[in-house]
Predict the 3D structure of the following.
Amino acid sequence: MSRPVPDPDALRPRLPSPLQEIEDEPFARRGIRLLLKRDDLIHPDLPGNKWRKLAPNLRAAAAAGERALLTFGGAYSNHLRATAAAGRLLGFATIGVVRGDELAAAPLNPSLARCAADGMRLHFLDRATYRRKTDPDVLAGLRSHFGAFRVIPEGGSNSLAAQGCTELGRELRGTADTVAVACGTGGTLAGLAAGLAPDQQAIGFPVLKGGGPGGRHFLQETVGELQRTAFGARRGNWRLDPRFHGGGYARTTPELDAFAAAFENRHGLPVERVYVAKLLYGLTTLAEEDAFAPGSTVAAVITGTP
């Protein structure tokens, strides 16, 4: 007897996600409205951009008759957790390739333990091999070990993910002059910018250090390439502001921690530290630099919860 085809929409995502206006002093005293696009409320197990990026990939896998997913991430990857949860909820087998072979000998941290509890098979690669994770010989070795699977890239960012994130932009048409999002692998910004109206601008705040050629952040090329693959050309009015990575992925500074704690106290809202804190800190700094015109509206895409 054949298994039913997994359908992400059976999970009943909350779409469009809610839009919440808050009055925050650095914005209000300059006459700027601040909106929070609460993508963190889309689904308890697949919140935010994880839903928007994974859902089209899951549909493609189901349509092709593929029931095993392999993806990549670090030891604290939200993307690994979301993929594992999707597997549990929809009946996909999941394999998580984790950066750092030394982790295999250590007790699982809470993030990886959650992945394992959701049925994900964890496979650890040394850091040199992990950097070559998409090379044919590495993938061939993984297929020899695990059998057939669909590859979903690190962070879930591919052309399907970018296309899925265009709906985020469409939901925000006519609501804000500027829409901002924190960026890890660039897929959300690529789709968001493509879905916005021509008179809206998107700002991406990278949560990783740059290190690209000519001093440009590497995500500049990554987002552009995602858009070319997904849409055939660069789409939308977007830019990056790489000043607020806080030292790198999952790193922070005392100033950033103090900002996040103060924002939580002012508004009674939890502020996730890896992405959302850097997004809100960047937007607040731009407001204090008078980067937004008085009377304008700024929307911050809240992509996750603590």
